Amino acid sequence: MEQTKWFKNRVFYQIWPRSFKDGDGDGMGDLHGVYEKLDYIKSLGCDGIWFSPLYPSPGADCGYDIADYMDIAQEFGGMEAFKKVLDGAHQRDMKVIMDLVVNHTSDEHDWFQKSRQRIDPYTDYYIWRPAKPNGKLPNNWDSLFEGKAWTYDEVRGEYYMHLFAIKQPDLNMDNPLVREEVKKILKFWLDLGVDGFREDVITFISKAEGLPNDYIMPASKGLNLYNHGPHIHEYLTEFKRDVLDNYDCVTLAEAPMVDPKTALTYIQEGPKQEIDMMIQFQTQCADSFLSDYYPMPFSLKKLKKAFTNWQTKLDGKGWNMLYLENHDHPRIISRYGSEKFWKESGKMLAVSYLFQKGTPFIYQGQEIGMLNWRPESPDMYEDVQTIWEYKNHATNKSDEKRLKRLWRSSRDSARTLVQWDNSPNAGFTTSETPWFHVNPNYVDINVAQQEEDPDSILNFYRKAVALRKKLSCVFDGNYIEYNKNSNKLYCYSRRNGRQKILVVCSFSDKPQRFTAPKDFHTDLARLELCNYPESDPKKLKPYEARVYLWR
Length: 551
Ligand code: NOJ
Prior knowledge:
This protein is α/β, with parallel strands linked by helices. The chain has helices at 31-36, 38-43, 78-91, 110-116, 176-192, 223-226, 232-242, 260-267, 300-314, 332-336, 342-354, 384-392, 399-409, 447-452, 457-470, 472-476; strands spanning 12-15, 48-51, 95-100, 128-129, 150-153, 158-161, 196-199, 250-254, 277-279, 288-289, 291-295, 321-322, 359-363, 478-482, 489-495, 500-506, 512-513, 526-530, 539-540, 545-550. The strands form five sheets. Strands 9-8-7-3-2-1-13-12 form an eight-stranded parallel beta sheet, with helices on one face. Helix 11 (342-354) packs parallel to helix 15 (457-470). It is globular and about 75 Å long. The site of 1-deoxynojirimycin has 9 residues, from loops.
């Protein structure tokens, strides 16, 4: 019998290093801080860590602009601190995965510096094009962060492509030398002992032949011509065959605009499998149209449809990655829950996804119910995308409206310092000038306070994760959704030959009537988890969540 792959039984914690914990007092989160908190992460029941980029970087996109792939930034403590964290994690039976960002590098990477001077072998490491004879850009594609996807480089006298910020030139993955570099990077970290990679926008690495104009997309022009491009499967297979297959590692691919059917072309288990899990965006779109910058009212039906779609379409074929938050989206209670019912909805949201089939990820601060940050001035934002959006979109609206748009949409809403206690700067640092802001609500929402409170969101996460791990049906049971038409309740069961659970989540701030589905006699079940001390079998309190178990 094939052994279950280790990542299927684990729960991961995502660290966005700059804001997690400053251990050396310089105001920047670092690996010393992570080392101090390994036991804390383990205490949540998490036995895996995904690190957002730790490499040397000028920080134009908070580390997603890499200047050296084979080192750890000094500001994070350098290689020595990393090895200590890696060992510390492994001693605690926690796996560590790195962010692999190879769609683009920093423009300060040595490769780019040489490429712009046409120094071989780097000349074709990036996507360079001359201006068109009429002076136009090489094509009409947009970047996702800063205007068009092309910037003119005076040194080379040509345009380079950047699908993200101007300081993030895209690598030319069609060049076999670049693919060799990627393989060297993979090998370097795997040999050092890391357990896998989260692959940043990996579905963008193969651009359409000839880089044609896009006449279809109304915005983000080009997306359909570089997402899932012509050679993507070939390149991923090459990385797997030449490197990844030689290690017992996991790969997690970030894939904007992917549906389960397309996802399976990458993650379907079997000889052709290229990737282990995918980060999909459909569950992030229950309150927006494609991106957080086109907000819409939250629709529970949309969220349930996305949950169920991924649960059922991947079942028996591929493995789900489960998440509600990461560093690219505003906080989930502020979006899908209710700040008024902060504690209740924070716990309910945990239940909504932690009992699904797949490998769950928890983003730093999610476990204490951190909320969106709402600064009083647009000048307080750091994120390149947010700054661009503010300057260029909705400019005809009032300042107040434009600022509120950022509150709702900005990635910085979820990038404030982790709130450890109620001392200055939330105990994140001893420095008086941390690199970024703290949400003023840290006085009330912080780890120290929640450690003391048995009824806290933090302790609820611990219970939920422990329960998840105890139940075999959560690991391998089937998934069935009930009350599909309700726009107040999300209800699903998980069942295998030995046991079944029923998960009930109210997304309403009013009491809701509840009848368990047929075959689920709740009087014969044990109520294993609930976010209220008492529950009425026929009625759910605001944002109530329950997990019933039958054996
Ligand atoms: C996705 C990452 O999650 C995001 O933070 C980053 O800005 C872009 N890719 C570009 O690397």
